[in-house]
Amino acid sequence: EAGVVQSPRYKIIEKKQPVAFWCNPISGHNTLYWYLQNLGQGPELLIRYENEEAVDDSQLPKDRFSAERLKGVDSTLKIQPAELGDSAVYLCASSLVGVTEAFFGQGTRLTVV
Amino acid sequence: AQKITQTQPGMFVQEKEAVTLDCTYDTSDPSYGLFWYKQPSSGEMIFLIYQGSYDQQNATEGRYSLNFQKARKSANLVISASQLGDSAMYFCAMREGVEETSGSRLTFGEGTQLTVNP
After folding, report:
1. Spatial separation of the C-alpha atoms in residues B94 and B2, rounded to whole Å
2. CA distance A109 to chain B (A)
3. Where are the beta strands (DSSP E) in chain B?
4. Residues whose CB is less than 8 angstroms from the CB of residue A1 and which lie 6 or more positions away in sequence, other chains included
5. Contact A103/B103, CB-based, under 8 Å?
6. Which tens digit of pLDDT belongs to each residue from A37-65?
7. Contacts of B110 in chain A (CB under 8 A)
8. Does residue A99 belong to the interface with chain B, where contact is any CB pair within 8 Å?
9. 3-state SS, residue A83
10. How is residue A40 annotated by DSSP?
11. Fewer beta carbons under 10 A from the terminal one: N or C of chain A?
């Protein structure tokens, strides 16, 4: 069974440019998470989806970040415009209701220069 | 609000020895789950072990065991017979609520960098 797939693995952009990350969760997983991980820190939740609905987006900086999960399967996280402080690893995870653990992808390492 | 505290930024252990990674948590919800994840240098978060707040026995998964002390609000990870491949960042995490109805956010600690020496 394929795990959570994220792309790209690495991205370098100039500040003020837009960037998008893509996540394909494990087949059948209805819950999808986007986490931000700064260097040397634990992941912090940006947004959580239950199927197509964003049920927890309180920590998503909505002035520049947006996310979508059309058809309740794969998801895209966008930043526009990117700032230097956005340099981090963006992790996607998925889980199934009734199952305890969340499964993570390998993340996208973003560098804003 | 929930909070996870990992007080050991780094730990060192000799190969084949056991090591304990500390984790304390804070929550007012009587129903919660505690997790440990391993993050090697490749970046992927790998699930290791889970303990539910109502579980009577400490969780074990192979060489991993979770020392759950509910009254102290601690959930320490014990790795027995350390291997060189265990060198990684280890994160403790907590989820509040009842899993059967819907997921909820995982809150992570700051992590502990474990180095296994040959």
Report:
1. 8
2. 9
3. 3-5, 10-14, 19-21, 24-26, 32-39, 46-52, 60-61, 64-69, 74-79, 88-96, 106-108, 112-117
4. A26, A27
5. no
6. 999 899 999 999 988 999 889 899 999 99
7. 40-42
8. yes
9. coil
10. T
11. N
Question: At which residue do the structure tokens 């526009």 appear?
Answer: A80
The C-alpha atoms of residue A31 and residue B110 are separated, in whole angstroms, by 24
Q: Which amino acid belongs to residue B47?
A: F
Chain position carrying tokens 């970040």: A65
CA-based end-to-end distance of chain B: 41
Q: For residue B101, what pLDDT band results from cuts at 50, 70 and 90?
A: very low
Instruction: Name the token pair of B45.
Output: 């978060």
Gyration radius (Cα) of chain A, Å: 13
Strand bridging mode A19-24 / A75-79: antiparallel
Nearest to A43 among B46, B104, B108 (CB): B108
Q: For strands B19-21 and B74-79, give the pairing.
A: antiparallel
| A75 close to A31: Cβ distance less than 8 angstroms | no
- Of A55-59, A95-99, B74-78, B97-101, the range with the lowest mean pLDDT is B97-101
Distance of CA A69 to the CA centre of its chain: 11
| Polymer length in residues for chain A | 113
Check: CB of residue A75 under 8 Å from CB of residue A23: yes
